[in-house]
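Researcher: Go.
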Amino acid sequence: MNIAIKSYITDLFQFLKSTDFSKAILIGFGVTIPVLTGIYTGRLEIGLAIAFGAFWCSPSDVSGRFRNKVVGILLATALIMIVTFMAGYFVRETWWLLLVLGILTFGISYISIYGFRASLISFSGLLALVLSFAHDAKVLLNYEYTLLVGLGGIWYLLLMSIREKINPKGALEEALNNTYELSADFLDIRRRILTNQGEQDKLQRELLGLQTQLTEQHETLREILLVSRKSSGQSQYLNERLLILVALVDILESAVAHPVNYSKMEKLAERYSDFVGQFGELIGGMSRQLYDIAQAGNSVKKLPSHSHLNELSDKLEQEIESCQPDFESYLTFKNLLEYLEKQLEKINRIKWILGNPGSDEIEMVDKKLLKQFKVNKEYDPKVLLRNLNFRSAIFKHSLRLAVTMMVGYGVGWYYDFQNPYWILLTIIVIMRPNYGLTKKRFKERIVGTLIGGALAVGVVYLVRDVYVYAVLGVGSLVLAFSMLQRNYRTAAVFITLSVIFIYAIIRPDVLTVIQYRLLDTLIGAGLSLVSVLFLWPAWGFLEIKDSILGSVRANKKFLEQIAEYYRQKGAIPPELRLSRKEAFLQSSQLNTAYQQMAQEPESKQLYLEEIYKLVVLNHSFLTALASLSTYFQTRPTTKASEFFDNAVAHIDENLRLLVCALEDKEFDCPEPDTKPRDFEIPAKIEAMTELDALGGSIHPSNEQEFQEAHLVMEQLRWLQTLSVQMMGLTSKINFEQEF
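Model: Structure:
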């Protein structure tokens, strides 16, 4: 019980220290102060205009570099000023307004074609468009109201800048802590797979999902760190965090490069249950180390000790020697322990860096290498024209949103609803480009609104004080914003409470407001779900081919870079690191695409089982590539053999044919049961293999060469088998099939 209470208290403090909560406080302050000032000075309309401007541009305040936040808020401010100015000339009592609403909705939504930050700017514009129906300026002229809305955007920018100056490291430290915890979860699931704790298929799916989240988190950290370093120079703090990011990326990629062979470990567990249990204990200890690092924050004193893990590792190393007569088991345990010791070294290095070493003790990250990892986004206006077709998911989403908004406002206007803009607000919040996310938002919004409405009714019956309503309204607003990214259902509860309490201050018939709020939410949510189902739906099956193609291309490039490095030796080239990063990123995006497809109606999940197998095979292919890459980079290797060149050429050709198939080019796909090519093994290696199989001993001078050749041959044969299986599966899937 005490442990549970302590855990809740820790979570509460973490939440209060989070950037989500600080941003919510900022929005609450930025909206409340202008309104209170307006009430106090008798200029409420001026206060409301500034408050609207601050609120509408706040979505662009997300994790990332400070310059991107500033540019995003300024662009959002410009957009909401344009929308506000145009909305000032709307003639409400005319059907022409529906056409104008549709055109503006499409244009604003289509901006999101430029990526995540552009989608936030687009959302600001949609908020301004929808809420322009909620308030008409009666005292101010249209241009005055527009300028004051723009001033609200600048006001929020000022507040955000002050927060960044007070706590410039907050977003970065939170992103790092999230990465520590995700990495800890990742290792813990691998422990459960190793020790056979839980359903293996379910655990493997969880592992893939966590790998996707970690890859995305690494990208967020790269953006913050690389650009911050560029703007602030060679800061030791930023350099240390870059080195921590490198270690965290290595932990993930090393884990992927050393997958748990479940069937093999299950057999070993029957004979060596103590060993497997101790390995699980070691992995669990490393997972707890990462959790404790996240909890420690910047406190050096709270960093966990690793002495007990070192002792466990030493004990395992000694006990493994007793397995030498069973050479295969001995080699499996030896390789597993060697991998875990390297993972432990990376965790210990993170703690050493967090322990504030002297500037002369820590190396500086190479600038040239960092430039290779910078991702330049395309903002060419031609992108807008290229996507003006029904192959573009954003184009279809924008068109669908525009039509749904027109229908929603038409329904509210025709039936003379009290606040028809609530229908529109529900639509822009719930509707997403794909069915899975829209359905999830639909459920969470409905449940949250019902709970919020029920709570509000109880409070309104018990309390009749407008000052209490004001405090509860502002408090609910802050909590709603703080929960938006964490738990949308909870956020919907507090949004509903906030809206109702604010209306309770200015309207006596608050129960009627609650009824209309619930009705408008149900209509808006229902329209959103129906539209995603029937208006130019973007089913995952129709788009997952591009994700598979991108991942196969990235794996092909990674294979080529690995082969080139093995032939040339020497320093690790940036091209190899870049190809590895791209391969992991594309694999993550493919997994995300499959997850979205799996959330769709069963009738739309064409070839779901085959596509899942293809995703797993693709992941296994990347795992084998990562294993080869790690081995070549961490050990001295011999000259590339003819066997190696022939095998790589054949695998590369299989991938080329697979790309051709996915691009709809003509090619002859091998049958799914095609046997891997029997490559000619070098005579010396074949002799050593036979000697080992007969129980003979290999001369120490040849042991390293034998180990290298054995690993390389096995991995290349596995890669060839996987490539053939992927070709076979692809031939079974008709990606052009219509629903």
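Model: Residues 505 and 596 are 42 Å apart (CA to CA).
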